[in-house]
Amino acid sequence: MRLHATCKMRVQASSDCPVVAMLRPRSGDAQWMVSERYELQPWVTTTEYVDVFGNLCQRLTVPKGEMRIEVEMIMEAEAAIAVAPDAEAVAVRELPSDTLQYLLQSRYCPSDKMEDRALQIVGDTKSGYAQVEVIRRWIHEHLEYRYGVSDGSTDALDTLSDGAGVCRDFSHVAIGMCRALRIPARMVVGYLYQLEPMDMHAWFEAFVGGRWYTFDATQAEPQGGRIVLAYGRDAADVAFLSNYGPLEVTEMAISVDELKANTSTVALSS
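User: That's the sequence. What structure does it adopt?
Assistant: Structure tokens below.
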């Protein structure tokens, strides 16, 4: 499916503020960039690099005062995500080396303290995709999606204790439990078509059956229409804006619309 996504924000800085942004998606097996627009007002010199997780990062300095940041893209995305109920877990000794970092405990995913809870939830479920799906479904059914419960210091154990959180919190719980079962799991942030309410979204992927599969504990059923912006160990690695000085996001609006098959091109407005 072809998606037209926009992210428009205004930020306010009390003094010049260095920033690293993750607002540009990369083309890959599951998505392809058709066209994009990235605008800064006022314009400042910007450089780009690829981080250790393969994400495109934009490095700039927001000048004192207000800046407007607008990103617009047309992406080819998967209309349905792949599912594989019979996919088995991959033995640690056979895992690709680049997946091993996603077995380690991290700031928001203290997996070394979550094994007992994970084993309790999965029971005698077959190791692999089926276990991940049981964890995803348990989170969806037992944790309440609620704003205002969590903040920037909330980790997976806090969310389990609170019994509520938002998409990033649900993902942290799932990632921590998967890693406790020796299944590599990573955080994903981006856009989801028909998300309510529309916002930046977070979900997770687990490596089973020799590949990464998408899971989303905020949704009742598997849902496609996703645009990935960044991957990481947890939310600390995938912030859409990392500021190194005082900076306030004063306005932000997200939109994701499907372009019909007979729409060959869309003019990206300035």
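The longest strand covers residues 65-77.
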